[in-house]
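Page 42, continued from yesterday. The earlier attempt failed because a stray header line got pasted into the input along with the sequence. Redoing it now with the clean sequence only.
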Amino acid sequence: MEALRGSDLIVHAGDVGHPAVLEALRALAPVVAVRGNNDRGAWAESLAATELVDVAGVLVFVLHDLAELDLDPKAAGFHAVIAGHSHRPKLERREGVLYLNPGSAGPRRFRLPVALARLRIQAAGVEAELVELEV
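This time it went through. Structure tokens are written below.
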């Protein structure tokens, strides 16, 4: 959690695992979270499948599984798309849109690194940095 201290907003791309995770994150900053395929139970039903985050006119679309993206982010005016289903950290730009999978900051998944991403949103747009965490 230390890596998230000082954040203005925390975005979680699903597979939260337990409502206590969201409570702990909310103690650090406001949280936007979507439901992942491993999020089950009444608490998870309160999470939307997608969220649109607007930070000073910079639009960030959040969903769990990028394969379920059913729109054209560029045509929709989105500056970034955040998805997390694979838990594989990845950062790329396509047609001017930032696509980000921050990885998984919880327990190690498969043989993937434990990671998160820092997103910097400014009037000029969005920049991201992948951060591998020590475990």
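Notes: The beta strands are 10-12, 31-33, 50-55, 58-63, 80-82, 90-94, 97-101, 115-122, 125-132.
Reminder to self: strip header lines before submitting.
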